[in-house]
Amino acid sequence: MSSELQHENHLIQLRAKLNERKIKLWEVPYMQVEGDEQRHSNGEEMLRLAEQFGAELGIATELCLRTLTALQRNALDKLQSKDEFQRTGLATVRVRAPTQTGSNREFDLKVQVTETGGQLCELIGQRLSLDARKIKLVCSGKIINGVRTLQEQKVSNGATVMALVMACSEEEAKRECSTYDRVHKIRSDAEMLINENDSSNFLSQALLMGLTLYEKGKAAMKADSCEEALLLLLEADHDFRNCNSQLLNVVDNYALLNLDIVWCYLRLKNLNQLPDAEERLKVCELKFQQSYGKNMARVAAIRGEQSNEKILLVRLHLLKAVLYFHQNKRDDARTMFRVVETELLKLRIDDDCLSRLMECGYGMKECRIALRACSNDVEAAIEFIHSQRETRRVNERRSERERQLYRTIGHDASEGGDTLRLKLELVDQLMEMGYPEELAALALKRSANDINGALNELERNGEALQAELLRTVLVDEELQAKLEALGFGGQVAQVALKLMANDYDRATNYLLTNVQNGRCSEGLQRAIDVLERQGGSSSSRKGSVSEGTDQQPAAAASDQQPSTSKRTTSTSSDTSADEAKRQERKRKKEMLDLLFKSFSQDIRTTADAHLDLPLDEEMNLLEQYKKLLGME
């Protein structure tokens, strides 16, 4: 047990005794007032009080006296700073700077509340001998803005500010600079990816940014970098709060985010953020009840009593118990710690079962989740793992199909609700009736997921749907070259690939069906005419079905060959412009691919990653607080 936590335990108990008996250590008889209003501690009265409280609480008299003296000194400092603030407007803020050694540096600073957050950073940087630009300040669960005044951000006299910095060694100072720079680079990279990536459907940008930063925060937590993690989590929290409340209610990530923020407070030993922590745990608990049912009843009914979601309850209950302890609600704390102990025993993983399962070639994370879900039954755990893998494969295939389909038909559902998200099951029904997937999706897009309306679109406006498809699909040049190698002309290859959304096999079958004896079918010819009107092919490929043969479309094209030099120049210019655009798209895609690879390398992408907790830290914390509460 840390001496810091033991000291905090004594402070909590003694404060409660003083409040209970309405004892004010800054007044007579515990203070003596001499001439010129000079106050001095009354040693005899303080010793008598220390002996009394020490006997009642089981604290050594000397230790009790030191703690009471510290409380008395703190009370006098607060009275003095309050008076100074009222007279001069000069506020006193308490700064806590967590270090890598697990302790906290604490000191008071004087500052005008009309000064900015950046100026407060400068003062703290001078005190810590650190570059002020590399310091981030947190107060009441929010990152202090460097440009706005402290008063605007409700940072006033008596506020406690957490300064996220490292210890002062050269190596650790360098790491702090890296932390600051990484957080800002992560946000910049995320903004670029979100703005450039067309597949970010269904979510508002604020929500997507929040989710992205949250994932990076979780990765920092896993790497045991709590300072960086807390910065990222609070940045994510800022974005989540900018979301539409209805949109926020459809995901449970915000509940998990609040849980992780409070966990970081605890890991950084910054329990001065108690009011913010308490509010965040209330949000988390309410959301868990909405999503999983009270005490996970809904999840248990679906997945069984040993569902892995119960891990989330363990951490929630543990943090609630810790809060109760620091609020001196000791009976409530004992009750909640007993609940946590029972839950941890139920979720304990048998080491032999874990070894047997890993010998079968499964990963540690998979094994832990499976064994918890199956109550340490190895055979059932193997079935669980394969079932989960298959579910993920199905979901990944569905998601990829959905993204590809949306890109193909130029559909963006990011600004609307569920009505704009095309239902794949309706697309499948229309495909079973013989309609191509892309046309079916376009029809459903026009009819807002009304299958009868979509059928009406397909029957009455089929040509218009085809024309829209020809306009939206960008032809894969490699597939076009393969079709041309089979003897098909460039233009018909383009039309087939557009209509079949760059599916090579379907495009080949389409051309074999619609090109007979060198002549295009009526439907294919209409599509070629539409593409020509849209300016969708280069003049060199226009109208040819098969190179070196005498076909009707080629003849039609030759009738149009004579043209002015102005037309030739225009066509050449358009071709050059198109090539430049393709090269720019290729360059941007390569850049974004590299950025995404770098950005996502430390993010856990599996949906159940938050359920993979070894629970060792939870067990250690439980034991520490049980000792403090005399529960052994």
From TrEMBL:
Question: Where does this protein have compositionally biased stretches of type Low complexity?
Answer: 535-575
Keyword Disulfide bond carried by entry:
no
- Please indicate which superkingdom the organism of origin belongs to: Eukaryota
What sequence ranges are listed for the domain UBA? 348-388, 421-461, 474-514
Q: Which SUPFAM superfamilies match?
A: UBA-like, Ubiquitin-like
Which regions form coiled coils? 441-468
Which keywords belong to this entry?
Coiled coil
Q: Name one GO biological process term.
A: regulation of ubiquitin-dependent protein catabolic process
Q: Which residues form the Ubiquitin-like domain?
A: 91-165
Q: Which InterPro entries match?
A: NUB1, NUB1_ubiquitin-like_dom, UBA, UBA-like_sf, Ubiquitin-like_dom, Ubiquitin-like_domsf
Q: What are the start and end residues of every segment in region (Disordered)?
A: 532-586
Protein name from the UniProt record: UBA domain-containing protein
Q: Which organism is it from?
A: Anopheles quadriannulatus
